[in-house]
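Re: [ENG-882] Designed sequences occasionally contain unexpected residues at chain ends

Forwarding the minimal case from QA. Structure tokens:
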């Protein structure tokens, strides 16, 4: 993931030729990942029940409901900034699929 600097804290848990697994932790309301474009397909596993605000650019913002432990999948090319919309500390695990199919 290519990213501008945000205030959320990324911690890389696993990185090899096939996957990159990062925990993103949001402590304060408004913490964000920074604007970025995903260079790979990826899976997100929320570690909380609540919501995130997704800035899609061009003034478009949506709220995405998160359910603890329920993953979702997105394809390469997604561009956005993910922003904390809760009044409590929250985190998710992002799994980037670095290996491409031949």
């Amino acid at each position: 993931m290519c990213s501008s600097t945000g205030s959320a804290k990324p911690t890389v848990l696993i990185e090899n030729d096939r996957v990159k697994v990062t925990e993103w932790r949001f402590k304060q309301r408004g913490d964000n990942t920074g604007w970025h474009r995903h260079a790979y397909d990826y899976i997100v596993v929320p570690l909380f029940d609540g919501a995130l605000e997704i800035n899609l650019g061009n003034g478009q913002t949506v709220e995405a409901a998160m359910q603890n432990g329920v993953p979702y999948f997105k394809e390469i090319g997604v561009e956005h900034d993910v922003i904390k919309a809760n009044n409590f500390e929250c985190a998710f695990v992002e799994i980037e699929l670095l290996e491409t199919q031949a």
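QA comment: On inspection the terminal residues look reasonable. The chain is about 0% helix and 55% strand. Proposing we downgrade this to a documentation issue.
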